[in-house]
Amino acid sequence: MWTLQSLFILLNAFCVAAVNAQGCSGLAPVLLQASWAAQLGWAASFDVSGWTGVTCNSTTGSLSIELSNRNLSGSLPDAWSAASQLSQLNISNNKLTGTLPNVWGNFNQLLSLDVGVNNITGTLPSSWANMTQLQVLGLSTNQLVGSLPEAWSNLTNLAGLNLGSNRLKGALPDSWSGFASVSHCCDLITITVYIK
């Protein structure tokens, strides 16, 4: 027979465990939205820390996903924008298709993103200017078209940008003038942009 006090202790223990695990464990439904989840052996479980390519820092709650060179196919999942604690995402050198999700502009803690060497089409989303913590962005060797978004001048922490081997065209936006040298406000170290 459960007493009110024992139920309270049990409930309190459950809540503490849920809060401690919330950093990454509650992400399973979000991450499983990727069409390639089964290919990686990801399965519905509360703890994602044992999943292939997923690393969760239990102290900070930050999430890193390293899935380069995995022969993955499918599109980039919009649902991943709900993973607000994502700090690093590398899904380069795969067979991914579709467009760059506009909603990924919601990644407000993302430091590094590499989607290079895939078959991504479409334009560069202006909404990605909201990823103001971003330090490295790799989108090279895809099928991206259009011009460079003026709004991306908001990416003031950007230290490396690779847009090479796409089908981008037009001039560098005036707002990107600081990206041309290392001595500007943003200290952009590397920029590789091939404009036709």
Q: What layout of secondary structure does this protein have?
A:
Elements: H1 4-22, H2 28-31, E1 54-56, E2 63-66, E3 73-75, E4 86-90, E5 95-97, E6 112-114, E7 121-122, E8 136-138, E9 143-146, E10 160-162, E11 167-168, E12 190-192
Parallel strand pairs: 2-4, 3-5, 4-6, 6-8, 7-9, 8-10, 9-11, 10-12
Antiparallel strand pairs: 1-2
Short description:
The chain is of the alpha/beta class. It is 12% helix and 19% strand.
Structure notes:
The protein is of the alpha/beta class. It is 12% helix and 19% strand. The strands form three sheets. Strands 1-2-4-6-8-10-12 form a seven-stranded mixed β-sheet, with no helix packed on it. Strands 7-9-11 form a three-stranded parallel β-sheet, with no helix packed on it. A hairpin with a 6-residue loop joins strand 1 and strand 2. It is globular and about 50 Å long.
